[in-house]
Design a protein that fits this description.
With 549 residues, the protein is mainly alpha-helical. It folds into two domains: 233 residues, MFS general substrate transporter like domains (Growth Hormone, Chain: A), CATH 1.20.1250.20; 202 residues, MFS general substrate transporter like domains (Growth Hormone, Chain: A, Up-down Bundle), CATH 1.20.1250. Helix content is 62%, strand content 2%. Strands 1-4 form a two-stranded antiparallel sheet. A two-stranded antiparallel sheet has the order 2-3. The chain is elongated, with a radius of gyration of 27 Å.
Length: 549
């Protein structure tokens, strides 16, 4: 009986069929990255808003005030009396009297300066120039409630984390394409509910669910793509990241053309319904079918792949075998029981956490530094495009470890320099920050590949799922770290990012180099991988490429 890899080689490892499926599934990266970074535009803080005094409606009706009049009579006196108070988060705690004059509602206080009058914090009574431009104005996420914007992004990342485990398990049990299609349906439905959520609680619940299903689409599309190509085509896992970057580039254009947050939310959610059409053009993973003892269906799909690739599969094939000796109920202890495995696991967990935290932090930082948000976001996204090409050019020539470490070091230096550059030279500050964004993107994309290459077949799926879950943990922490530290000093988050990236660069130098080495099949193979800057060890015959995030 031939092995799956032998049959795939005969049917074509990356022919017309795989290229078509790769292109179709890669579109998922565009919608997923738009969801991933959407908070930058959904959560823009309005430029002009102010606190409305209690009873303002009655006063305005009695005096015939417009909203502008109301602001001039009730908010401007506060600012004139105390220039440090803008009237956004505090109001005068006084009795407003319009019985004498509608133009002087503070007459009863005589010559008292408004700076000496008592103040009260504003509670759920803000007026916005553009009330539906963002979730901030929609749900009053300003002043003491500003932390709730951080919470909305943390909840999305918590959904990503839940999706990685729940839908990752479901994809292993019920099939890749089924979970992919259900996830696409879930993203679309939850996205619509988020857009029309009647309150912030409903918004958070369905944003969590949209994150969970969104991670399901991205994870299963990655799995499907990597499982239908040959062992020499591991690079598709890097190339698919280009479509993630395309989503980042397209997002500011969508936000620029659509003035309301509901419109942006619908624009990034509704395309997921189109992916349901893949039911008729994307098959189930034949590798997964073989692990579920469905060899006849797998063979039928392989014959179809061969036909589309212009190849001919031998009619004598009646059964396919696959080496897939999974550890029953693997646990974290299996990943740290031996020295090399333990070192790899701990370093990879830190690398996932750091890459995600810094990447997402730099993306969201664009929303708080001023300037032209749409143009800056577009440029920072466009600069990510060379990342995949740089990886493709370097990893098979100089290896994985050196580009991995170098990208972290460059990101660290760029963040540090950006923090201390003067505001008077914005072009230089933007250029250095952009270099940091490119570098951390390279690190983020390399960790996808390296993670799958450093675990044996028997633990690969579990190991990659566990380590990559730290990515979502970093995403949960990122908004709180960015926005709360930026409130102390705008550049303080960059100092933290710099330290984290520098430590990561040093740690990844301790990982084995996997250039030119087949994927390990056992824990013993991992323990024998060349470490540090040693020479590559003996190549092993490769039997299984069932690796994914």
């Amino acid at each position: 009986m031939p092995s799956f890899d032998e049959v795939l080689k005969e049917a074509g490892e990356f022919g017309r069929f795989q290229k078509r499926v790769f292109f179709l599934l890669s579109q998922t990266g565009i919608t997923f990255s738009s969801l991933f970074a959407s908070v930058v535009f959904l959560g823009q803080t309005p430029d002009n808003f102010w606190c409305r005094i209690p009873g303002a409606a009655e006063l305005s009706e009695r005096c015939g005030w417009t909203l502008e009049d109301e602001r001039n009579f009730t908010v401007l006196p506060l600012h004139l009396g105390n220039e440090s108070v803008s009237g956004e988060c505090e109001r005068l705690d006084v009795t407003w009297d319009t019985s004498v004059s509608c133009t002087s509602p503070l007459t009863r206080y005589g010559n008292h300066s408004t700076g000496n009058l008592p103040l009260a914090p504003c509670h759920n009574n803000w007026v916005y120039e553009q009330p539906h431009s963002s979730i901030v104005s929609e749900y009053d996420l300003v002043c003491a409630n500003a932390w709730m914007l951080d919470l909305s992004q943390a909840i999305l990342n918590l959904g990503f984390l839940a999706g990685a485990f729940i839908l990752g398990y479901a994809a292993d049990r019920y099939g890749r394409i089924l979970i992919y299609l259900l996830s696409c349906l879930g993203v679309g439905i939850c996205g619509i509910i988020v857009a029309f959520a009647p309150n912030f609680t409903v918004f958070l619940i369905f944003r969590f669910l949209q994150g969970m299903f969104g991670k399901g689409t991205w994870m299963t599309c990655y799995v499907l793509v990597t499982e239908i190509v040959g062992s020499d085509q591991r690079i598709v896992g890097i190339v698919i990241q280009i479509f993630f970057t395309l989503g980042i580039i397209i997002l500011p254009g969508i936000a620029y053309l659509i003035p309301t947050w509901q419109g942006i939310q619908l624009a990034i959610s509704l395309p997921n319904f189109l992916f349901l059409l893949y039911y008729w053009v994307v098959p189930e993973s034949p590798r997964w079918l073989l692990t579920r003892k469905k060899g006849e269906k797998a063979l039928k799909i392989m014959r179809n792949i061969a036909k589309h690739n212009g190849k001919f599969l031998s009619p004598h094939y009646s059964e396919i075998t696959i080496s897939n000796e999974e550890v029953s109920n693997p646990s974290f202890l299996d990943l740290v029981r031996t020295p090399q495995m333990r070192r790899n696991t701990l370093i990879l967990m830190y690398a996932w956490f750091t890459s995600a935290l810094i990447y997402q932090g730099l993306v969201m930082r664009l929303g708080i530094i001023g300037g032209n948000l749409y143009l800056d976001f577009f440029i920072s996204g466009a600069v990510e495009l060379p990342a995949a090409f740089l990886i493709i050019v370097t990893i098979d020539r100089i290896g994985r470890r050196l580009p991995f470490a170098t990208s972290n070091f460059v990101a660290s230096i760029a963040c540090l320099i950006t923090a201390f550059l003067p505001e008077g030279i914005p072009w230089l500050k933007t250029t250095v920050a952009t270099l940091g964004r490119l570098s951390i993107t390279i690190a983020f994309e390399v960790v996808y590949l390296v993670n799958s290459e450093l675990y044996p077949t028997t633990l690969r799926n579990f190991g990659v799922s566990l380590c990559s879950s730290l990515c979502d943990l970093g995403g949960i922490i990122a908004p709180f770290l960015l926005f709360r530290l930026a409130a102390i000093w705008l550049e303080l988050p960059l100092i933290i990012f710099s330290i984290l990236a520098a430590v990561c660069g040093l740690l990844v130098l301790l990982l084995p180099e996997t250039k030119g080495i087949s994927l390990p099949e056992t824990v013993e193979d991992v323990e024998q991988l060349p470490s540090h800057f040693g020479k590559c060890g003996k190549k092993r015959k490769h039997r299984d490429t069932n690796s994914y995030i």
